[in-house]
Amino acid sequence: MRELTREHLAKNGFTFDLPANATTIGTGGTLTTARAILAARDGKTFEAIGSVVTVSQLRELLDLIGSVDLETRRRIPGVPAGRADVMPAALATFIALAEFGGISAFTNSLYNLRWGVADEAL
Fold it and tell me: What is the CA radius of gyration of the chain?
């Protein structure tokens, strides 16, 4: 498979033009699950840990989740059984995106694109 470079992606219309220290919003199950795991690990509620998930935390979670088999992954507090199989790949994708875009953290929003479309429609 051909390596994706910034130049290759830019030629195909995929670029990042974020200012330094830009807030990066992340939605969906991966970051929400990451927050749930972090909260459970620290003995806190989901809300108590806040909405910012650093790339360093994502790497820690990938080391934890990626190093165990599926059955063990399903027993990790905060990991929904239906997501246990895809979490390593999902975390790796967020980490790769962050590295490509120079992103150090994501602010997790529980309001995704579908919520925004529904809001506009109503």
Answer: 16
